[in-house]
Amino acid sequence: MRTLIIVAIGIALSALLLMLFRRNAPTLRAVFATFAVAWVAVCGYNLWLGVTRAGYAVMEELPFFLANAGVPVLFAWWLQRRLQRPLRA
């Protein structure tokens, strides 16, 4: 359940940030890059908490880290590419 909540927060945050800055393509790329780095850092902290505080092994936490970090970053990449595309008439 925690994984789903973290992924949902990441998707919502990336969509919010990209929609706020959707008018300018270079800014959109910078927002995506900043979000991706920051989100991976947040998920790395979550991984560290799972290993040091909850007592899980790194190999147990690694699939959850990849899901928590990967799904929102891939969604943000997809949305950023979609928002950069010119509208067709």
Automatic annotation (TrEMBL):
Q: Which keywords fit this entry according to its UniProt record?
A: Membrane, Transmembrane, Transmembrane helix
Superkingdom of origin = Bacteria
The keyword Membrane is annotated on this UniProt entry: yes
Spans through the membrane: 6-21, 28-50, 62-79
Q: What is this protein called?
A: Uncharacterized protein
Question: Which organism is the protein's source?
Answer: Solilutibacter silvestris
